[in-house]
From TrEMBL:
Species in which this protein is naturally found: Anopheles merus (Mosquito)
A GO cellular-component term linked to this record: cytoskeleton
SMART domains the UniProt entry points to: IG_FLMN (SM00557)
Chief subcellular location: cytoplasm
Keyword Ion transport (UniProt): no
Protein name: Filamin
Cytoplasm listed as a keyword: yes
């Protein structure tokens, strides 16, 4: 491979995932032929995109969307000319595993180059290319920037005007972001053009000569956000209006409010307690004039609602009036705070949103000064171009997005990446044997349990088998089509990734948002020791899974496909420190990726320590609990902390009991799953972090369900809602986050069955709604939402909106049902068999027995009642012996005739009611 740099004798740059690099590969795929005649040879460009790694290949690192220039490796090629005639190009063997193809065009227009290897077309063949006649005066353009690029990296191409005569050259780039364009006249009849895209998407590049498009113009280039790191903060600045009347705090939870602008745009707004004790609304004014505020309780207006609010000109948020100062928006330095100032005093009311995207995730700090201005500091760790999006009231401020050149030393982080093709799993049928596998080494299967809940709400225990050491499979047979919920628990706590979505029948949706990953290797690790985790791609369909490990040292990554839509991954690194594990599916990050993992130094003496008297079951909040740690002769310092479900950290109290034993005391203040980190000389001891359940409430994300129009197709400018049903899920923390082309106005209010979330999107595109309960995804989360309609705000980078609610325990009170909702049972009582003397005759003071076989009767609840001359009998015992087999014992103390009722759900079994003589 000869790149331009190498022709000039410079050293080639080592390829990484974040650089625009060139490299050679000995087979071809996705090719386009240059329209420029270079050294009398047709130059072929190769776009590396979703390329599977061959087992026989020496190359185990494949970047995506890279452009490589090379000559075709083939044994046969032919060119179909515009006239329809076929011509033969010249094929030269380079004797290095490649061949060169040379072709001298004889006609103008579109040609087709067919390239065959062993008689078969190579991928993408035949390739189309356009031939111009230089003497005709045509201007031509060629180069990678007309095909693809990366955000924040200059995209370059060349325009040739040789022999074109006099005329003005005009160029424009249109796309998701503005792109700064620079020109350089090469003084040889060519012009080098560079443009800097700041957001991913498709860009339209128009090149005109003498007011006419040149041939091939407009060009369309795909710009990706590959390898970019992003950070974002939002600062609230809202208009507040006090409403008349007094409303209690309990009423406030059940109220929701929306504001309608004069143009008809309606969006949710927040209700808040004002210093006066009254209720106020908080909103972002977008228009001048009279706004209508509706405050409703369970869909009905409260007293005096709707309210009228008048918005004057100085209150409307105007991004053009925001003043931004500071050299840090032009250039910056790594590993130091780069500061700039924002003045919104004369810009009205509006939310300020700031995002910084570049080669590293820059830490952002915001200081609100007393004079009404803000100071923003960002600290990048890698040099390169950064894109700063700064919005006020959903519109870019003047100059945004800013392109910042950051210089300085990087962190010398190393990245290793593998890429594997994932095949779609065959459709699962009703009645077939279903399997979900996961790897959890170092545990006992005795502590594992699994349940499967069908779309109709029927929950059943599932069987767990150990396939091999540390590899387990959940087996179940579905009885209906649709999305099933598979909950897998270890010691009554969901394993990472659980609850799982498992679709029976055709998949309703596919994509990266449906990939799940979990395991200790995504949480912590030890240098030199394999760190393992699971990846489940079954629900996402077929595609390319890319796994990258970036940190202080290079990783050795191993991948094992379990051929059932799941796989296990392990990696080993040689240096301790902070690592990032990136998981992408079809070039898009999966939920929660990239994962931040701390790899601790080698365990050393920490392996000697052991924990004793660790609390079993669950402990209570606001009460201290403790356990013991034995050092077993190890020398060093012990430290411990407890991490609550809200991510709040608290130190544990460590007391030396004797020379070799410590007491570790912790004080949980929340309900939910806590993690207790125990370290020795800064290294986790075996088994750390330990997980423990705090509180009596069994908070179960598998019991939370979301439904409503807000999860389907929505329109810009229209408020839409969804219901999150938390009945029987316990009290926990509900967090709803929406990622999309623009921030959404969103609120959350309490309703009978759970919580109603309402939001208004302002830009069309795809939004992803993440719903977590106690930091665990509910089934189906994140949900992909398609939004159509007109753009009501300025486009920029991806933006995030979120709302967090501390929930209360709820039971269903809808319709005629009260309390817990019973599952929808599917059963047939007529198929139940019963036998035993206790169905006909009984003896006083003795245990009388009969058996029930409901193995073929489906699922339901067995009810047994016995009524005698003087009322119910003394006692009835029902024991489930497995597989819907039951043994029933009862005791009577009076003579006479008794009536024995046996029901399977609401239906009597055959023979019931029975007459029993005592």
């Amino acid at each position: 491979m000869w790149s331009d740099d190498e022709e000039q004798g410079t050293e080639p740059v080592e390829a990484t995932w974040e650089e625009h690099s060139q490299f050679y590969r000995s087979f071809s795929r996705f090719m386009s032929v240059s329209e420029h005649d270079r050294r009398e040879m047709v130059r072929v460009f190769f776009i590396e995109q979703d390329v599977p790694v061959l087992e026989s290949s020496d190359i185990d690192f494949i970047p995506t969307n890279m452009l490589s220039g090379f000559f075709l490796h083939t044994h046969k090629a032919e060119v179909k000319m515009p006239s329809g005639e076929v011509d033969k190009p010249v094929i030269d063997d380079n004797h290095d595993g490649t061949v060169s193809i040379r072709y001298e065009p004889k006609e103008e227009g579109i040609h087709e180059l067919a390239v065959k290897y062993n008689g078969e077309h190579v991928q993408g063949s035949p390739f189309k290319f356009h031939v111009d006649s230089i003497s005709s005066g045509y201007v031509t353009a060629y180069g990678p920037g007309l095909v693809h690029g990366v955000t924040g990296e200059p995209a370059q191409f060349i325009i040739s005007t040789k022999g074109a005569g006099a005329g003005g050259l005009q160029m424009a780039v249109e796309g998701p972001s503005k792109a700064d364009i620079t020109y350089h006249d090469n003084k040889d009849g060519t012009v080098s053009v560079s443009y800097l895209p700041t957001a991913p998407g498709e860009y339209k590049i128009s090149v005109r000569f003498g007011d006419k498009h040149i041939k091939g113009s407009p060009y369309f280039a795909k710009i990706t956000g590959e390898g970019r790191k992003r950070n974002q903060i939002s600062v609230g600045s809202c208009s507040e209006v006090t409403l008349p009347g007094v409303i209690s705090d309990n009423d406030l939870r059940s109220l929701n409010a929306s504001i309608q602008a004069p143009s008809g745009l309606e969006e949710p707004c927040f209700l808040k307690r004002m210093p006066t004790g009254n209720i106020g609304i908080s909103f972002t004014p977008r228009e001048i004039g009279e706004h209508t505020v509706s405050v409703k309780r369970l869909g009905k207006h409260i007293a005096n609602s709707p309210f009228k609010v008048n918005v004057c000109e100085r209150e409307v948020g105007d991004a053009k009036k925001v003043i931004v100062t500071g050299n840090a928006l032009k250039e910056g330095k790594t590993h130091q705070d780069n500061v700039f100032s924002i003045d919104t005093r004369n810009a009205g009311y509006g939310g300020l949103s700031l995002s910084i995207e570049g080669p590293s995730k820059a830490e952002i700090q915001c200081t609100d000064k007393d004079d009404g201005t803000l100071n923003i500091a960002y600290k990048p760790t890698e040099p390169g171009y950064y894109i700063v999006n700064l919005k006020f009231a959903d519109h870019h401020v003047t100059g945004s997005p800013f392109t910042v050149k950051v210089s300085g030393e990087g962190t010398n982080r190393q990245r290793e990446k593998i890429q594997r093709q994932r095949e779609a799993v065959p459709i699962t049928e009703v009645g077939s044997q279903c399997k979900l596998t996961f790897k959890m080494p170092g545990i006992t299967s005795f502590d594992l349990s699994a349940t499967v809940t069908s779309p109709g709400g029927v929950s059943e225990d599932a069987e767990i088998q150990e396939i091999e050491d540390g590899l387990y499979a959940v087996h179940f047979i579905p009885k209906e089509l649709g999305v099933h919920t598979v909950s897998v628990k270890y010691k009554q706590i969901h394993i990472p990734g659980s609850p799982f979505q498992f679709t029976v029948g055709p998949l309703k949706d596919t994509g990266a948002h449906l990939v799940k990953a979990g395991g200790p290797g995504l949480e912590h690790g030890e240098q030199g020791v394999p760190a393992e985790f699971n990846v489940w791609t079954r629900e996402a369909g077929g595609g390319t899974l890319a796994i990258s490990v970036e940190g202080p040292s290079k990783a050795e990554i191993e991948f094992k496909d379990r051929k059932d839509g799941s796989c296990d991954v392990s990696y080993v690194v040689s240096e301790p420190g902070d690592y990032r594990i990136g998981l992408k599916f079809n070039d898009r990050h999966i939920p929660d990726s990239p994962f931040k993992v701390y790899i601790s130094p080698a365990m050393g003496e920490a392996h000697k320590l052991e924990v004793a008297q660790f609390p079993t079951g669950c402990v209570q909040a606001d009460k201290p609990a403790q356990f013991m740690v034995r050092k077993n002769g190890a020398k060093g310092e012990l430290d411990a902390k407890v991490v609550a479900p809200s991510n709040n950290e608290d130190d544990c109290f460590i007391q030396l009991i004797d020379q070799d034993q410590y007491s570790v005391r912790f004080y949980p203040r929340e309900n939910g799953i806590h993690a207790i980190h125990v370290k020795f000389n800064g290294v986790h001891i075996p088994g750390s972090p330990y997980r423990i359940k705090v509180g009596k409430d069994d908070v179960d994300p598998a019991a939370v369900h979301a439904s409503g129009k807000g999860l389907g197709d929505v329109k810009t400018g229209e408020k839409t809602d969804l219901i999150i049903d938390t009945c029987n899920a316990g009290a926990g923390t509900l967090a709803v986050t929406v990622d999309g082309p623009a921030k959404v106005a969103m609120d959350c209010t309490e309703v009978e069955e759970g919580y109603k979330v309402r939001y208004t999107p302002l830009l069309p595109g795809h939004y992803y709604m993440t719903i977590k309960y106690n930091q665990m995804h509910i089934v189906g989360s994140p949900f992909k939402i398609n939004c159509t309609g007109e753009s009501l705000a300025e486009a920029g980078g991806q933006e995030t909106s979120s709302v967090i609610v501390e929930t209360v325990a709820k039971v269903s009170k809808g319709g005629n049902r009260t309390g817990v909702i019973l599952p929808i049972f599917k059963s047939d009582a007529s198929k139940i068999q019963s036998k035993g003397m206790g169905l006909k005759k009984a003896y006083m003071g003795k245990q009388n027995q009969f058996t029930i076989n409901a193995g073929d009767a489906g699922n339901n609840i067995l009810f047994v009642g016995i009524y005698g001359p003087k009322g119910p009998c003394d006692e009835v015992f029902i024991k489930h012996t497995g597989r819907n087999q039951y043994t029933v014992n009862y005791l009577v103390r009076e003579r006479g005739d008794y009536i024995l009722l046996v029901k399977w759900g609401d239906d009597h079994i055959p023979g019931s009611p029975f007459k029993v003589e005592v």
